[in-house]
From TrEMBL, chain A:
Residues 17-218, 476-677 form the MacB-like periplasmic core domain. Residues 90-111 are annotated as: Disordered. This is Putative ABC transport system permease protein. Residues 254-373, 713-829 form the ABC3 transporter permease C-terminal domain. It comes from Saccharothrix tamanrassetensis. The lineage of its organism: Bacteria, Bacillati, Actinomycetota, Actinomycetes, Pseudonocardiales. Pfam families: FtsX, MacB_PCD. The chain crosses the membrane at residues 249-275, 295-328, 348-374, 395-415, 421-443, 480-500, 709-734, 755-783, 803-822. Belongs to the ABC-4 integral membrane protein family. It is a multi-pass membrane protein.
UniProtKB/TrEMBL annotation, chain B:
Gene3D superfamilies: P-loop containing nucleotide triphosphate hydrolases (3.40.50.300). SUPFAM superfamilies: P-loop containing nucleoside triphosphate hydrolases. InterPro entries: AAA+_ATPase (IPR003593), ABC_transporter-like_ATP-bd (IPR003439), ABC_transpr_LolD-like (IPR015854), MacB-like_ATP-bd (IPR017911), P-loop_NTPase (IPR027417). The lineage of its organism: Bacteria, Bacillati, Actinomycetota, Actinomycetes, Pseudonocardiales. It comes from Saccharothrix tamanrassetensis. Keywords: ATP-binding, Nucleotide-binding, Transport. This is Putative ABC transport system ATP-binding protein.
């Protein structure tokens, strides 16, 4: 039997190659997803290891402990066994760009001990004196060496340093490492009185980390100070930033599961066709005396060999995919990305399991069916005439799954967010199952309808295509299903993200009618009090009003984050949705409460609150209840008062996030006024001017990068699905060689034959894409309903443009998938084709 | 020209045709300088032992295969040198086929199979002619069935109807009874003869069966890629004798 297996492998190189390609692609997809998931983790570990390199002990301050000052550092340095100790501080240090406007940045101090520096010098040298600075290489773009770099101090004053070098470090992974490095004296100038956030120490040779920690703990002997080993410090740092990366890793794992499902479907489909085509050959083996079990084992062995070889190819292909995606994501992000390709046992096991097991399983089912048929019958009946029709049990399971899915969806809508999420996922899986189950039942009618619709336009090829797709609805549905799953996920993610984006923008779009918002780059440094008047004087500006967030004491109701705004800004610059009362302006002694505050305190229009200091409370009358979203620089907080009321109700020194809202005269072009406004801001160097469009971009930015990576990944899923369609078509072409030759003999042109196959591919793609889009959008609707909370509402909006791109891409990619099989079908010699049995 | 066909115009002809299968050491001259004319409105049988080049000759005549040398002509059209598209048009407009293994599309009904060639050509079927053909073949009650639901003989009659419905210049039948029992075979052969005598068709049939050959007006014997003999009005016995003579 083994010899037959080997002979079988060598006798059909083309068919096996097609299946092997399908397997390799699928496995590459799975291993790529796993490698990416591990790469995120590896990137993080690398960044943490870099940040804590050389550190044998880390001294931190616990809550309520004393500041880590120079004295503490000096004490640590005196501990025997400490070779070197350095204080670490990071301060906010906005950079002034070429246009004179501030950009967010941060600075840290240069450790004197070279082995405790978490930087690798790239160019130039490290600073020698307090007037010099080095920058992270990516940030340094546009700043030539030897030129001055201007930085804002915490007091708002400008400090100038000479750029003497650049340094490298692993890609930022949420550690928040500062891009500017100065000598400690220089850092003190930027923020006098800044203590250390951490003191790190290096041991002399021969002293272990635990020993060093024990020595330092004993020497310091102070309450509120914690000393841990370098390894523990690294673990702590990792756990602090892990939640973010755990989210990313979870996402990649979910994606790997998706990859496995899509790959399994493509492989199963491909091998099912392959074995079905060989039913006659298997029957012949039976006729000449092979046992049922021998035939079955032979097919399995063959499938396993092909699966194993293709899996190994796919596994390494996956490493390439992961590396390429990281490089692409880095390029999109505008920085040189560190590429990690960690190959873990999990990846290898998952990839090989998918490749070998799925292939063997996919081969086992049709092989088993083949061995059930009486040998002589299989030899007699022409295989091509047999079509797999969908059965009743399929319809029943489809209905059951549909009922389960809809039921879960209904319950999900009524449940709270936690249970709702679980129920939503259950509903989506059940609906997907229903769709897959019902696929073969609807595939026939759908392609027939498509054929009828298209035949007036494309003539007979469309009709032939529909006939061919209808011939084996199970196979058609299975080819379409891989695309359905891929597109469902893309559509789901796209729609939900669009919803989140719209919700984030809603606050901006609905409540902000200002054209520009001016904020301070240093949150604790307020904008000049006269800035609003300066801006109001700019030609084209209709109104400019200051706004301020603060903590208010609402007496019996407790403390809340509120907003003070000049009363006349309401209605002209800010227009929150008013739920009750009136909010066209706000006067002294009046208060508007948010929906959330009204619900928490029971306050309603007409009520009076006693706010401010206990000894001299101010009565505030509630005049409106409003609904407001979060907008940086135009946040409405939980309650609104007139700016004049601020000193009386604000807790001491609690003002923050001050801004000036600017409204233009109707009909003025914002871009024309912008340079004038920028010039007017020259007296307020910390002020940052943002148009509403800038803010919208900033709000969407964090989502965008996620979405880009997601699209890249799911595009791969869709690519695999198309490879599956191409594969199915190719195998069908081989199976129909004789029929194609007959059609050609009867007068179908080469072009006509190609058109028929192309149309078939388009029909399958349309079927798969439509089902996928419907499922994805439906699930997105469910998720947006379930996940939406008052604090973070998620709207359901249809991103028509992006969904259209998806459908269009699917329909345009279909002819590409048909290209090779169609060429092959048209090339076959007529007499050879006719002779083929 | 052969004595009994002088009065008939020739429908199809080959002149000095050479066709080589394979190359190098394994090259076989399937047709070696064959020249033949097939008269119109006649039923011609091409006979010969296996490997004589019968099927190759018909494939070349019908534009399904190309020749390595010589000329092939249908009516006034020279097939050699025609483009693939022109050959395709010629096949669908001027040639009909009946194959040994029926070659019907399993997905469509008998009637759709009959009309497939016309559909491919975008031609409107002549209903009266369609009825004549279908009734002559006794297919009327079977038109709505799919090929899988028909017997072998019925399937071959559907194939005959498909070949004739477009009123081709010539119908080629390659071992049309090879897959049929003798009764069904006789039915098909009888129809082919009727289509020549009563409907005025031209039929060229390849067969190795002497009984099948006896339905023809004229027989051509091929051996080793060459014309070995002409048998006017062949009978089964005459064919057997001629075949036996080849072996000698």
């Amino acid at each position: 039997m083994l010899r037959t297996v080997v002979a079988g492998l060598t006798a059909r190189p083309r068919q096996l190659l097609l299946s092997a390609v399908a397997i390799a692609l699928g496995v590459a997809f799975v291993s790529g997803a796993f490698v990416l998931s591990d790469a995120v983790d590896a990137g993080l570990r690398e960044a943490v290891a870099f940040e804590t390199r050389g550190v044998d002990a880390s001294i931190g301050r616990t809550r309520g402990g004393p500041d880590l000052e120079d004295q503490v550092l000096a004490d640590v340095r005196r501990v025997p066994g400490v070779a070197a100790a350095e204080g670490r501080t990071t301060v906010s240090a906005p950079l002034r760009d070429a246009a004179g406007r501030p950009q967010d940045s941060a600075a840290t101090s240069l450790p004197a001990d070279e082995r405790l520096r978490p930087f690798d010098l790239a160019e130039g040298r490290f600073p020698d004196n307090a007037g010099e600075v080095v920058m992270e290489r990516g940030t340094a773009a546009g700043h030539p060496l030897g030129q001055p770099v201007t930085v804002f101090g915490q007091d708002g004053r400008l400090h100038s340093f000479t750029l003497v070098g650049t340094f490298d470090r692993p890609a930022e992974s949420g550690i928040g490492a500062a891009p500017l490095v100065l000598l400690p004296e220089a850092l003190h100038r930027l923020e006098p009185g800044a203590g250390f956030s951490e003191i790190v120490a290096r041991a002399v040779p021969g002293v272990g980390q635990p020993q060093l920690v024990a020595d330092i703990t004993r020497a310091l002997d102070r309450q509120g100070i914690s000393v841990v080993t370098g390894r523990e410090a690294a673990a702590q740092l990792l756990s602090q930033i892990a939640p973010d990366s755990a989210e990313a890793a979870g996402f990649f794992t979910a994606f790997a599961v998706l990859a496995m499902i899509v790959a399994a479907m493509v492989i199963a489909n491909s091998f099912t066709i392959l074995v079905t085509q060989r039913t006659r050959e298997l029957a012949l083996l039976r006729c000449v005396g092979a046992g049922r079990r021998q035939v079955f084992a032979g097919v399995l062995a063959e499938a396993s060999v092909v699966g194993a070889v293709a899996s190994v190819v796919g596994l390494f292909g996956g490493l390439g995919v992961a590396a390429a995606l990281q490089a692409v994501a880095g390029a999109l992000g505008g920085h040189e990305a560190a590429v990690h390709v960690p190959l873990t046992a999990r990846t290898v096991v998952a990839a090989l399991a998918v490749g070998v097991l799925v292939t063997a399983l996919a081969a086992a089912l049709p092989a088993w069916t083949a061995t059930r048929v009486a040998p002589i019958e299989a030899l007699r009946t022409p295989v091509e005439g047999k079509s797999a029709r969908a059965g009743r049990s399929r319809a029943v399971s489809a209905v059951v799954l549909l009922v389960v899915g809809v039921g879960a969806a209904v319950f999900a809508l009524r449940a709270d967010v936690q249970d709702g999420a679980v129920l939503s996922i259950a509903a989506m899986v059940a609906l997907l199952g229903a769709m897959l189950a019902v696929g073969p039942l609807v595939a026939g009618p759908v392609v027939r309808t498509l054929g009828t619709l298209c035949s007036p336009l494309f003539g007979l090829p469309a009709k032939l295509a529909a006939l061919n797709a209808d011939r084996n609805p199970k196979r058609t549905a299975a080819s379409a299903a891989a695309l359905t799953i891929g597109l469902a996920v893309v559509a789901l993610v796209t729609t939900v993200t669009a919803g989140v984006e719209a919700s984030r923008n809603r606050g901006l779009d609905q409540q902000v009618t200002a054209d520009f918002i001016v904020t301070s780059v240093i949150g604790t440094r307020p904008l000049p009090a006269t800035l609003a008047d300066t801006l109001a004087a700019v030609p084209g500006v209709a109104i400019a009003a200051p706004r301020q967030s603060f903590s208010a004491d609402l007496g019996a109701h407790g403390g809340y984050g509120m907003t003070a705004v000049r009363g006349d800004a309401l209605g002209s610059l800010l227009r929150p949705a008013v739920l009750s009362g009136r909010l066209d302006r706000l006067d002294a002694g009046e208060l508007a409460v948010s929906k959330q505050l009204a619900e928490e305190t029971g306050l309603a229009v007409g009520d009076t609150v006693r706010a401010g200091r206990r000894d001299s409370p101010v009565p505030l009358r509630v005049v409106a209840v409003y609904d407001g979203g979060r907008v940086p620089g135009a946040d409405l907080g939980l309650g609104l008062v007139d700016l004049g009321q601020l000193p009386a109700v604000a807790a001491e020194g609690s003002g923050y996030d001050g801004s000036v809202l600017v409204g233009l005269v109707a009909g003025t072009d914002a871009e024309e006024v912008r340079p004038v406004l920028e010039r007017a801001l020259s007296d307020a160097p910390l002020a940052r001017l943002n148009s509403v469009a800038d803010l919208r971009d900033q709000l969407a930015a964090p989502l965008r990068s996620t979405l880009d990576l997601l699209w890249a990944l799911t595009a791969l899923a869709v690519l695999i699905a198309f490879a599956g369609i191409a594969n199915t078509l190719s195998l069908s072409v081989l199976e129909r060689t004789r029929e194609s030759a007959l059609l050609r003999a009867l007068g179908l042109t080469r072009g006509g034959l190609r058109a028929a196959l192309t149309a078939e591919s388009v029909f399958v793609a349309l079927l798969g894409a439509t089902c996928g889009l419907l499922l994805g959008v439906g699930s997105a609707w469910l998720i947006s309903r379930v996940a939406s909370t008052d604090a973070e509402p998620v709207l359901f909006t249809l991103p028509w443009g992006r969904l259209g791109v998806l459908l269009g891409a699917a329909v345009l990619a279909a002819p590409l998938a048909a290209l090779v099989p169609a060429r092959r079908a048209a090339r076959v010699s007529l007499t050879a084709g006719m002779a083929e049995q | 020209m052969h004595g009994n066909t002088v009065d008939s115009p020739t429908a199809v002809g080959v002149a000095d045709v050479v066709k080589v299968h394979g190359r190098g050491d394994t090259a076989v001259r399937a047709l070696d300088q064959v020249s033949l004319d097939f008269p119109a409105h006649r039923f011609t049988a091409i006979m010969g032992p296996s490997g004589a080049g019968k099927s190759t000759l018909v494939h070349c005549l019908a534009g399904l295969d190309t020749v390595d040398a010589g000329r092939v002509r249908i009516g006034r059209t020279d097939l050699t040198g025609l483009s693939d598209a022109a050959l395709t048009r010629l096949r669908r407009d001027r040639v009909g086929f009946v194959f040994q293994s029926f070659n019907l599309l399993p997905t469509i009904t008998a009637e759709e199979n009959v009309l497939l060639g016309l559909r491919l050509a975008g031609r409107r079927p002549d209903r009266a002619w369609f009825d004549t053909v279908v009734d002559a073949l006794g297919l009327r009650p079977r038109l709505r069935h799919k090929p899988g639901e028909l017997s072998g003989g019925q399937q071959q009659r559907v194939a005959c109807a498909r070949a004739l419905v477009g009123r081709p210049d010539v119908v080629f039948a390659d071992e049309p009874t090879g897959s049929l029992d003798s009764r069904s075979g006789a039915g098909v052969l009888g129809f082919l003869r009727t289509s020549v005598r009563e409907l005025g068709q031209t039929v060229v049939m390849v067969t190795h069966d002497p009984v099948a050959a006896s339905y023809a007006d004229h027989g051509v014997l091929l051996a080793d890629g060459r014309v070995a003999a002409h048998l006017p009005r062949p009978t089964a016995d005459a064919v057997l004798t001629a075949l036996a003579g080849l072996g000698a």
